[in-house]
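Appendix B. One record, verbatim.
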Amino acid sequence: MRSWVKYGVFLLIIFAMVLWLGGFLAKKEKAGEIKRESPHVQGLTVGQVEKAIEVVSYYAGQVVADKRVEVSTRLMGKIKGVFVEEGQSVKLGQTLVSIDAEDIKAQASALDHQVAQAEQALRSAMAQHDAVKKTFERYSALLKEGAITQQEFDQVKAQFESAKAQVEQARAGIKAVQSQKQAVVSNLKYSSITSPISGYVVQKNVDAGDLAVPGHTLLVIESPPYLFEVFLPERFAGKVKVGQEYSVQIPSLGENLTGRVVEVSPSLDVATRTFRVKLQLQQKESLRSGMYGSLLLPEKVEVLLVPESAIVRRFDFTGVWVVKPDNTLELRFVKLGEKRGDKVEVLSGLKEGERIVIQGVEKACEGCRVGG
């Protein structure tokens, strides 16, 4: 009897454990009674998507000098001295570089001797010419008197014509040597290179002891005023004209300068569909060629703009954190257009007036609630 009681109690305990493990004894909550609270995010700055009817477009360019001269020489020789440094101011006609011209001087001296020899040959030819001329005149008189035959006269005449040709040949020889000497001597002026303009030395490519090679740039000299050179898209053709003034941003100077259009290219580059524009800049002492800048051009267009700080980039994904009406966040894909200063054009994905996170995007999360 007792064994049956023990067995029954054991089965009852086993059954109770099965019910407990299966969760049948736990209190059950009805569906929908448990609500998840969205986490709150602090430190976000919220703004709105703006619609603009006129925007300022930025077009990159660079500062260039009004005059730029690459100084070279037609003379090959060892450089004896360079008398300027980069950044130095120079005046028109100032000596910049001297080149060893001993070879040219030696050639000129040799040609002087050749000229002397040619002059000596001319004197000899003229003496021969004078002697033969007298004989020719006597034979002419004798021929008229019938004292000599025509054959004898023709021989003397031929000698006279030959003497005249030798004189002309000697004179031509003198002129040829003199021309050679002039060509050699003319190169001497290239042994002392002077500045063709007044300006600044912006590049020095040689030092004393180097070899000067014809056509190789020795120095680069630039002369103010400075211009801003930029290439604009085809849509501005006919709209940007000489005399118009625009603002030019020079980041290295930390300010915007006024630029007046002084040159507009009449043709477009067939590859880039752009044309060149040059603007004369408001002059500054710190302005230098090669400085990077941007031309600010106003355009009448209807676009949606968001701050560049609001853009979220993750690999190939580009999006913006949108604050929904219930103050929760949603990361939305957007398609961007051109950059407009510190803002970016949005082509699709957003509507005018929608609230977006413009600062602190790294703190945002999907479904999080903005504020406290």
